[in-house]
Write a structure and sequence with these properties.
101 residues, mainly alpha
């Protein structure tokens, strides 16, 4: 019974992770279109500006979280602690696609 619970939890977390990665990828594609529009016309709408800023911040957050995993031994143990400390100080290090359930 316990193994089934663990298996279900892992499957749910993998599903959430893959859905969030897909959402980030779609956001990156949308940001590229906005940048292309800006390069062609020299201007973008206020809505596109907000979308672009959010996507750039999300990309920086992913890089900021991803690099320690590759370079720092034990980062998988430190990262949850860093995320909790940042949240205590009202600093959000989680990309928007990964927030929530």
């Amino acid at each position: 019974m316990e193994i089934e619970l663990i298996k279900t939890t892992i499957e749910a977390n993998i599903h959430h992770f893959l859905a969030a990665i897909t959402k980030e990828y779609d956001g990156d594609k949308q940001a590229v279109v906005i940048i292309q529009t800006y390069v062609k016309t020299g201007k973008i709408s206020d809505t596109d500006d907000v979308v672009l800023r959010t996507q750039v911040m999300d990309s920086l957050k992913i890089v900021g979280i991803g690099i320690p995993f590759a370079l720092i031994p034990g980062a998988s143990i430190l990262m949850p602690i860093i995320l909790k400390v940042a949240a205590k100080h009202n600093i959000n290090l989680i990309p928007t696609a990964f927030e929530g359930s």
